[in-house]
Amino acid sequence: MLQGTAQATLLAKQLRGEMSLPEVMLWTALRSRPGGLKFRKQHPSGPYVADFYCHAARLVVEVDGGTHGCGDRPARDAARDGWFRRRGLDVMRISASEVLRDCDAVMRGIVERAAQRLDDER
């Protein structure tokens, strides 16, 4: 399992208490272990904090709010995604508006992607 730096671990703890509404909605769905998959919320990994992480499927799920398309944020997100991918993790980015619109469909898509990654490893 990926471990976070001391700074990322502290940030993860802080972020767990400050989750956005879309993150809370998605966590409510994921914490029930859909498809038998265990997800962690605000998981520190190296210098980063993944919104959600499934170790078995090596899947990072990021919920992107409106600011992810502004300023230097796209470049920072690309660098972050690259860091995860170089470590063999898949990164799934989901817009916050998608979660608000149809959380169940988003959750089903996450479970499908995680299950596919598990099948690919076999």
Q: Could you please describe the fold and organization of this structure?
A:
The protein has about 120 residues and is of the alpha+beta class. The chain has a single domain, classed as VSR Endonuclease (Endonuclease, Chain A, 3-Layer(aba) Sandwich), CATH 3.40.960. The chain contains five helices and four strands; from the N terminus they run H-H-E-E-E-H-E-H-H. It has a four-stranded mixed β-sheet, with helices on both faces. Helix 2 crosses helix 5. The chain is globular, with a radius of gyration of 14 Å.
Spatial strand order of the main sheet: 1-2-3-4
The CATH class is Alpha Beta
Indicate the radius of gyration in whole angstroms: 14 Å
Helix content: 40-55%
Q: Based on DSSP secondary structure assignment, what is the total number of beta strands? A: 4
Beta-strand portion reads 15-25%
**With helices defined by DSSP (H or I, 4 residues minimum), what is the helix count?**
5
Q: Would you identify the regions where 5 or more consecutive residues have pLDDT less than 50?
A: none
- What is the residue-averaged pLDDT? 89
Map the helices and strands.
Layout: H1 6-16, H2 21-30, E1 40-45, E2 48-54, E3 59-64, H3 73-85, E4 90-95, H4 96-101, H5 103-121
Parallel strand pairs: 3-4
Antiparallel strand pairs: 1-2, 2-3
Helix pairs in contact: 2-5
Q: Could you give a short description of this structure?
A:
The chain is of the alpha+beta class and 122 residues long. It contains 5 helices and 4 strands, in the order ααβββαβαα.
Question: Main traits of this protein?
Answer:
alpha+beta; Endonuclease, Chain A; 122 residues; 5 helices
